[in-house]
Amino acid sequence: MTTRSPVPAPATATVTWAGANARRLARQHLHPDAVATESPFASPGDAVAAMLGAHAQVLSAAELSVGLRGDGLTRDDVRTALWTDRTLVKTFGPRGTVHLLPAADLPLWAGALSAVPTGPNPFTKDARMTPDQVESVVAAVGEALTGAELTIDELSDEVVARTGPWAGDLVMPGFQAMWPRWRQVLHLAGHRGVLAYAPNRGRKATYTNPGCTPLPGAGALAALIERYLYAYGPATPAHFARWLAAPKRWAAEQFAALAGAGAIEEVAFAEEGPAWVVAGDTDFPAAKALGVRLLPYFDAFAIASWPRERLFPGAAGERALAGGQAGNFPVLLVDGTVAGVWHQRRSGRRIAVTVEPLKPLSATRLRALEEQVERIAAIMEGTAELTVGPVTVGPHA
Alpha-carbon Rg of the chain, whole angstroms? Predict the structure, then answer.
């Protein structure tokens, strides 16, 4: 009797940090050497899709994030896409934070975000809402905003009128005031696709219903994970969970299901161990990224790239992370890793840019930095002046 030798398992690709980092930068057109090989993004929507949403807590920073990934894009192009062409939508995205998202992708985002399990209720017992009350408020928000652009106070009046006085109880701690009960599900209404920002009315934000029909949750989640891995892979379920503010065990279950279906595959990520990429997407650059880049507050690349200690090595983590949180400082990238912080102060068309490198820059890198500052000036439609020295401004909240 003869025995057959076991069929060897297929070799698992090994990915280095340098290769992963260079590919992430190139796919967002942030790799200085990728200009000749990667097509720059011609529209704000394409740039935002590539980074999986532009964090828009500081809208000017989002405009700069988009412009840096585009081909001649300016802040005016972003504003036109957002408020005139409506190819971008400002709403609540990953982690419940305000993002710019492509309008064409909003059904996918709404389907995926609506399917993410919620964590423990963070509100006090007297402030909480029942599941039925939550659904009533979300429905009321969608109805009130259909065909309308309302301020938060106007929306509050409409929600209370449609649901009941309980929705208006002032039980939510806000900024130097108490907010009505219903406000705790504002971001949920965004995730359900019934609320998005409309143009400001003076200094007041307004909201509207973008008319989005969410895609079924299972398919939308699968598509979002694959897009995440394409942009930021290799990645682990824990990385994805932190990026999305989702439970780690749930994220692991989603990855396992996709792996079982053959949609994603495991690789050996040298610095992290087993990690995942889209099936077949295992080509990575051999050389690390080179050059100088300036990224603004809350840039998607800085927030979504892991392992964080490799992107923010040594002193960079101490200087450019706020309690381990990425994005609170604009960062200087040198050869693909964080090597300092920077700040800009605008007065009319004049933009004063201060860059604080952690180590002295060579003459070649100083010239590259000057080019970056000029590019920022073009994107932000101003004139820039560069100072290399200490940044005295603290982290953004």
Answer: 22
Q: Which residues contact 21 (CB under 8 A, 6 or more apart)?
A: 288, 289, 305, 310, 311, 336, 337
For residue 269, how many other CB atoms are within 10 A of its CB? 24
pLDDT for position 2: 47
Residues of the chain with pLDDT under 70: 1-11, 32-39
* pLDDT at site 257: 97
The position carrying tokens 């800085």 is: 302
Q: How many helices (H) and strands (E) does the chain have?
A: 15, 16
CA 295 to chain centre: 13
Half-sphere exposure at residue 73, Cβ-oriented, CA atoms within 13 angstroms: 26
What is the side-by-side order of every strand in the sheet holding 264-269? 14-15, 264-269, 273-278
d(CA 11, CA 170): 60
Cα separation of 324 and 309, whole Å?
A: 9
pLDDT given for residue 33 in this prediction: 59
Signed CA dihedral, 317, 321, 325, 330: sign only: negative
Rounded Cα distance, 144 and 303, in Å: 34
Nearest Cα to 303, choosing from 271, 276, 330? Answer: 330
- Backbone torsions φ then ψ of 125, nearest 5 degrees: -55, -40
CA–CA gap between residue 62 and residue 137 (Å, rounded): 30
